[in-house]
Each structure stands twice: as C-alpha cells, then as structure tokens.
Amino acid sequence: MEFAEHIKTANVEDVVLRQPLQPPSRGTLCITGHHLLFSDREESDSRQVLLLLRNIDAIEKSVENLTGYSGFFSNASHSERMSGSSGTITMKCKDLRVLQLDIPGMEQCLNIAHSIETLSCLDCVSAMYPFFYRPVDLSLPEQWGLSSPEMHYSQMKELYEKWRLSTVNRDYSVCPSYPPAVIVPKSIDDDTLKKAAKFRQGGRFPVLCYYHKKNGMVIMRSSQPLLGANRKRCKEDELLLQAVIEGSDKGYIIDTRSMQQAQQARMTGGGFESKSFYDRWKRFHRQMERGKALQESLIKLVEACGDESNNMDRWLSKLENSKWLSHVQNALSTAGLLVECVERDGHSVLVHGSEGTDCSLLISTLAQLIMDPCCRTMEGFLGLLEREWIQARHPFQQRCAHSAYSHARLQQESPVFLLLLDCVWQLWRQFPLALGFSEALLLRLATEVYASDYGTFLCNSDQERCALEVKERTHCLFRALLRPTERDYYSNPLYERTELAIWPSVHPQSLQLWKGYFLRWTQQVRHLEEAQEEIRNMVIEWGKLARS
Amino acid sequence: MEHIRTPKVENVRLLDRSSGQRKASVGTLYLSATHAIFVENNPETRKETWVLHSMVSSVERPPTTSSGGQLILRCKDFQIFQIFIPQERDCVCACVRARVCVCYSELYCLSFNPNVNKEEREESWNFIDLAADYKRMGVPNNLWVATAANSEYRVCDTYPSELFVPKSATPAIIVGSSRFRSRGRFPALSVFFALQAAVCRCSQPLSGFSGRCQEDEMMLQALMKSNPGSDYIYVVDTRPKLNAMANRAAGKGYENEDHYTNIKLQFIGIENIHVMRSSQQKIVDVGEMRSPSVTDFLWGLENSGWLKHIKAILDAGVFVARAVADEGVSVLVHCSDGWDRTAQACSVASILLDPYYRTIRGLMVLIQRDWVSFGHKFSHRYAHLDRDPKEVSPVIDQFLECVWQLSEQFPCAFEFNERFLIAIHAHVYSCQYGTFLGNSQKERRDMRLHERTHSVWPQLWKDRGKYTNPLYKAEQSQSQGVLRPNTSPYCFKMWKGLYNHAEKSTPPRQSPADFLSAVREESQQLEEELTNHQEPITWEKIEVPRRRTSCLPQRHSGPDPPTLYREPIASLAQDSSHTLSSAPANQKTHTKEPALSLPLGPHGQLKSHDPDDLSTCSDLESGVADLSSRSSSGGDVGKDPDLE
User: Fold this and answer.
1) What InterPro entries does the record tag this protein with (chain A) (predicted)?
2) What are the φ/ψ torsions at residue A88 (nearest 5 degrees)?
3) Which of B307, B488, B540, B571 to probe the A interface (max A CBs under 10 A)?
4) pTM for the whole thing?
C-alpha cells in the first residue's frame, strides 16, 4: 500500500496515553494507513483506543533529548536511560478531544508525528478509510442511502397534479451539483429548465425542496440569479418561478444575504430577483454569516471553552466575541421566518443566497423540521439530511476538511453543518418530546461529518460520488444508524409525535451553549448524560409495567 | 380588617408584561385589604390575577396620556404588571396607587388566616425540629455539646438560644469570645460532618490593628481540638481581603495568624450587600430586555456581574466542603457580621456535604437553621417592615440560585425542582407566613409570631408533589456522598425561571420533568396493581391503557405561539393564554387562599385556568387555529424591505 511510505515507525512500546476523563495508561502504540491504535498493557482489563487519523485536526510535538543530562538523572526510569530521549505528541481531534502521547525515543516520536501529520490530511478521496471499511457483520448494501429523488417523488402523490420529476440533469450537464432527477413545476419543460439554469450560478435553477401538505405551499431552492451589472433578465427563469405560484397571489423570496451584499454581488455577475421582472415575488434579505467568518467563529468558541482562567467576565466576553450563538439565533430566526411565510401566511417561498449550497440548505432543513412532523422522526430526519445535504449537495469535502484546532490556512472550511446540528439541538432542548431522536444522534453526526468509517459525507457532490463509485464501494452511515440496535440507542425515549409546528424561541436566554458538543470531554457533561440515561430507564420501566 | 367595601375599577386593561403578553386584557380591578385582583371580562376565561400588596416593590405612574392613566407595578418576584385606567377615571390612578401602598402598613401574615385551629397552628411551628437534625448529625457527643450560655439571648441577641460548641469551651470562654466578636456572634456549630470535621460560624473579630483576646484564641483552639483528626483549622473570611483590611481601621477585621496558633486564614472575596443589590438590579434589567441580540444579552450579563458573584459564593461553599470532606479539617466561616455571606457559604457547603440537605425536607431544615435561626435579617434584607433601602439585598436569592445552578449541573441529585426554590423565594418576600419575618429568633419571640402567624414549612410539605424532581433517586451515585461541582464559568447560566418571566413559560415548553412525574406515578400504581392482584381481573386490563392515555396530554404542554421572526432580530410574542409558567401559578395558588368576599365568578371556573392544570392544554388544535387567524390579521407590517 502507498501508505507504507509515510510510516517509518509502525510500532512503539511503552507509550503513555493521556485522554480526557480517564487515568493515563501505558501500552503499545501502532500506526496504520488510517488508524492510530493504542492497546493497554494491563492484562486484566485491556483497553484499546482506535482513532481515525482523519479525526486528528492538529498535532503539537515536543521532544527532549536527555542524553547529555543522563548523569544528573541517575534515577530516571530504565527506558529513558536506554533511549536517552523522549517526546510528547499532543493530538487535537476534530471531535474536540485532546489526546496526549508520551513516546520514548526522540526519533520514534518524530516518525510517529510525521506519519500522523501526513496521513491525517491526505487529499485523495479514494484512499480514504470508507473505501476500506468492511465490517464483518455488514455486506455492502444493495441500495446506498435511504431514498432517491425518484423514490421521494413517487411517494408524494400530492405532487403528481402540479409537479413532475425532470431528468434534464441525468448526465449532470445542466447542473453539476444537482442530482440526476429533480422536481419542478409540471408546466415547465426541460428546455426552459436548461435556459433557466444558465441564468443561475452553478446552474442551480429553482427546484422543489419541500411540499407543505397542509396548504399545498412549497419551499423552492436555488442559487442567485446572474443579473450582473447590466441587469440581465431571463424569461425562462421568470416563467419557472411564475409557475410555482400559479393560483396564488404571491410568493416570497428569502435571500440569505443582506441587501447590500446582494447588490454588491451584481458587480461580480450575480444579483437578486428584481421587483420589475418578478413582480409577484416579495423579497426578504436576512444576512447570514457563512464561509470563513463562520469557521473563525467556531475557532473562537472552542478556544473560549478551553480557557482555564476561571474568570467569569473573561468567559462571557469570549463567548460573546465568538458570535457563535448569534449565528445560531440568526439561523433559527431566518428558518422561523421561512416557516411563518409557508405555514402561517400560506405562500410559497424561494430560498437562495449566492451559491445555494450552505445557508439555503441550513434554513430549508430547519424549516422542515419546525413544520413537518414527518421530518422529526429518526428516519425522517436522516432522510431530510440526505435530501437536503447529500443529494442537493453541500460540499462536505471542502467544508469539513478541518475543524477548530487546525493551524492550516483556511480555505473552504466552514462549519455550516455543525451549525445546523447545533440549531437542531436547540430545537430538541426547547421541545424535548417532539423529536424522535436524541442528542446522541446529533453528536454522532457531528463526529462522523469530520471523520468517518462511512462514505456518506465523502465528496462534494453527487457527480463526484458517482465518479468515485462511492455508492458501490462504501457503506452508508444513515442506513447503519437505522439498524435496530443503533436505532434504539439514538432514539428519544420521550418522543411523542405532534402535528403542530414547533416554533423555536430565539430569545438569547432560550439559546444555550451546546455543552454536549463543545464541552463534551468534561466531567460536567457526564452528569447530564446520566440524567438522560435515567430518563430512558424510567420510560422503559414504565413501558414494561404498562405492558404486563 | 377593612374589606367591608372593596373598591373596584371597571374597564381596566391589564398587561402582564413580565410574561411577555403583548395585548392587554380588559377587566375589572378589585382592591382588597391585601390584594389587587384583576378579573378578565372575557366570560369564557374570566382569568384572575392576584397581586399581593406586599409583593409590590414599586408603583410607577407614567404621565397620563390621551388614552388614560397607567400604573406600573413591579413585584419582588420580578413580575411586572401594567394597568391602564380609562381617561375619565384619571383620578382613580392615584387612589389605586395609594391603596396598594397604604395597605402595606400591616403585614399580610398577621391577617392571613387559613382554616386551621390553634393546635394545628402550634403543630405547624414544630414541623422543623433543629435539635433532631443535630442529633442526625451525631451532636451532641463527647466533643460537641449544647450550651446554655445564650439562653434568654443574654450573650448574643441575634443568635438562637440553643447552640452547640466544643465541649472544652466553658461559658467564660464563650462570653469572652463573644465580647471580641462583632455583635457578640461567637463561633458556634453549623454542620458536623462524618462525625469528624465541623463547619462553624461567627462574625469578624474586633481585632483592629493589634487587639487580641485570650478567650477567643482559646475558643478557636477548642474548635481545633474538637476535631482529633487534624491539628489546624481553616478560618474562612468570605470577604475580599481589601474589605477585611479596611475593617481593621474601624477596630474590626480578621484574625491575626500570629496570635492564633494553628489556623490557616483564607479570603474568598464575596462582595458586600450593596454590590449585590445593584448587581441584581442589573440582571433584572437584562431579563426585561424586550428583544435583545445575543451580543446585547451576553454583554448585559457580563456587565451585571451577577454570575460572577454567584460563582464566588459557590466557590466559597466548595472550599469549605473540600476542607471538611477531603482534608478532614474543621472550618470557621465568618464575614463582617456573620449573617449574610457566612450564611451563604455555610449553607452551600452543607448542600454539598450532606445528601440530606438535597431533599425537600432537608432544604427546609437547612434554611431554618443557617438562615432563620442564626439570625439572617429577613425583615431588613427583604424590606418587610422598615424599608431602609440600604439594608435591602438579595442574599437568600443568591443562595437559592446557587442551589439551582447545582441542580442544573447534577440533574438527579436533588429531590426538589426549580419550582420549590422559586416558591421559597416568593414566600421570603411575600410575608404570607411568619417564618421569614423578623431579624432574629429573639425578635420573632418578642413579636409573638408563633401565636399570630403560621409556619410556611408544613404548607410547602403538603404541596411536595408538585415540587418533586422525578429524576431524583436517593440511591443513585449523583445523589450520594459529597457533591463536587465544577465551577468553571461555563457551568453558570442565567436563572431564567426567576429573572425572566417572559421566557419562563418557554423552554422547555414541553417539560420532560412533568411527563416523567406522571410516568413515575403511574409506574407505582401499576406496580401496586401487579402485586395486589396476582390474578388480573379483566376490567383492570381495560383500565390500564385508559389511564395511560389520560396522562398523555400532559406530554405536550403545547407549543407556544411563534416568535415574530420578521423583526430584524426576532423578539418574542406570546399570548397570555399560552403562558404555561409554573411559578406564577404557585404564587397564585398561595395568594388565592384568603377567603375574601369578592364578587368573583363561580369558583369552579378558576380551576381550568390554573396554568398547572394541564387539561387546559389538551385542546391543542384550537390554539393553533387561533394563531393563524392572528397572524393573517396583523401580518403585513414591515414585511417587505425591498429597497430597490
């Protein structure tokens, strides 16, 4: 294997591993192409730690050469005297865990550090672990994923009258980032779609993303229109949007940029739907942070959580300064606006920002969770994530290359998906009975999105996934999560379906730091987990009694 | 009592601002001797709002506008009511205001008369037995004894008459020591841990720059000797060191380590009552912000300094508990007079050390001992009788909040829930019962409160069902032993339940706790049935599922009406009919008790509007229909920021 060239030292004995919440342990360290394996020397209860190298965000190494001082350190341990030097590697993981390895021997330490550094950020997707992950109890699936646009359409009988499934993108030629099949108004033919696609950035023409059964209104999703400085227009795009609100007096457009940003976008060829050409559409602008700013916010927040000064003022000002909770508030309130338009105002909505692959997905996903009880079950939620984030394409490979600890220069990284999970957590906390899944599922997803055994979050688009045969050669996380044992573990014991919309409060006091994630490796979170465990036990006990 | 003629004002509009209500409801305002009562005109609901006069901390009267006059009542439990009085009745404003203020001249607890006879009243005062609690701790024993030195409050008039001191502390030492301590508050036992180390409390020594007192030094020596396990004691001065040093100029101060052998002095740095008073005002203001951004909110939180103070108090408790539990060393705690910060530090330490104080009854005992009996100045701090604003300070608020912060960190460790803490808070301020009246045991005796008022504890105990935390399990690891909380700043958050009524009803809007209580109750019933009837009878089988469904409506307390997301930063819009807050409900049920002859609707109607009565929430659909109609009417305001 080509990984071998990066591994100079594969095994080291007598390594001390320090990890949060556990006493340090001494044992053997082993490094492979994808993993770091540590096994305890204690024979009574041998512990193993298996860490995906991909999970490591940053490492720090320090070596000490003790050879010159060996005379002074006559009582140094045997092994130290033998090698005369030692080193420490601190590994900061993408799941926010910090591990430390004390390795005897400077050279070994440097070799290990080098291997970790190189192997943890290999760019080649097809060499990543999901392509090698072959658990014994699981054969590669017949069907990858939970559903497909075709299946989704065929199950939605309500759509048949006014909507059709278009395969205009079957070879990804119209829009490289869309799946081969998309749902569009019935009255719009494929030629019109092709022309409309040319008028939208990246070819992401407006497609249906959600149909609200209660009133037949829909959420559409697209990228920005390419007006440019001289205000081009596109009849086909106008027709397409017109067809969406056929039979209704108006529709709303939620632009996830501020008015100013949208206007500036015209200078670079983008823009927004102007009132004169889309006269029945009303536009809202909601500035949502994305890209680099969001990544920096995450970095600041994680830094604040690691601050050990024990000073209240400092903590509060760092928390405020990170702006993370502002982003959560903003996302939830924009999603709330979207739901308000659809559910209460009874009108269809088009959502877009510039590319339509980040914030647009974020708020359309949240809106569906708020409105649609079907999306709040575990299957429903995973299906929703698959539709919105996998099929409609969030560029996971780019966005999740690094997390908060990395020293690498920021490129396309942005924790949009993590922000989504945080917002869902806020919903779960505000409505502990309304969601069919528990915090544990959100934590699992937050981990898997950065480093995974599964192929679900690989690649940037459906097209790339096809090219690399991801669907044939890897396992699907969502399917794995729905296996009976896993499902039990991730389900919410208190879940009780409600047909009502769950309107989140976005008052700052109602929003809390997601301790389960950001302070995941502290003792405090253990107590909260115990409480959750207690709740589960009580409900199970109650169920048993009620049945008998 | 003079409620022969109950003044009433018709066509008044009331806005419960603190619960986030946006539209005022129209109704009639009645003013009894003790309460302002607002009854909605709406014949379907006839919702009642009772405001106890003594709970009103201030009445503001903004200038009269064209639509009439208005009054703003701010309550001590942080509720705010805005009353609009129509124009033609302008002068009525003044009357209402006068009434609310004047009626305050008599304490409510003196007129409050629940239907109990004399024996029951006397019984109520014996409900909490401090001697029994000391016995539970293993006191008296061969090291600690009860002293009669303070009988008839001869040595210290702010201390209780029953006190425990080291066996070797003779009356002469006690009297000598008390002369050297501010207000005569000599070192006495607060809590005895694991039959070894003790937490004792006192006030600052009158040492000045060089003063010393042989008896006081002997007293501290006796404290050390009464713990054979260690050869020193900690003296914890809960004040910032600077404050303690400043006190030396006034002939007070702190123990000089050169004069006292075997003590280790430790300063904690809890600020004084004046700092706390203004800090609380700031955090109340933060809670009142209408639609703050996250930045505004966090800035306000930081600026108030409130959480910093809470952390300092918890840190003090943690220090004491660690010394006692981990090092086995006794601790003597004091501040200036030893009745505010000392009470806080000792009682927080007790909560951490002894699981008993984490039960409903245990917390009552603890408050009775460290606060009521040891002479915390309830009347001054909570402005019961004479309202000297300089004496007022939220000292017990802070203790209750520390307990709440701990219960957030250890969800399974406390037998009681947030409602219990809020109920105690309300009783401290309302003075419905005599428990929290007066500044010391002596004052209470002189006022003959035991004959003239009732004790709050039996009442709270009777309602314990609604104060129980369903997650509490006495045998669970979290509940056992010493609590070791994390006091990193990120573990603290604003106590929304107390400071923000607007948000109180919101998250968690669906309360897992309420649901679990129902589950627990039903599990017990089912278990009983199973054990009682080996052979299940058919009708029982039918009954089980029926009962199960009957508890299900409780699972959803009904989503709130949505926030108006259209404002730049969304603010909250809630409808009064949807505020399902529990604490105001508690307040209401307490204040509802007096049998006043008011022309109110049939009493049966009251019940269905008690927010705690979950049957009101069962009709969820209608609630939503109501929302959608509201939205379409008030929909288009400021909707289109189309700025081409």
Assistant:
1) Myotubularin, Myotubularin-like_Pase_dom, PH-like_dom_sf, Prot-tyrosine_phosphatase-like
2) -125, 130
3) B488
4) 0.87
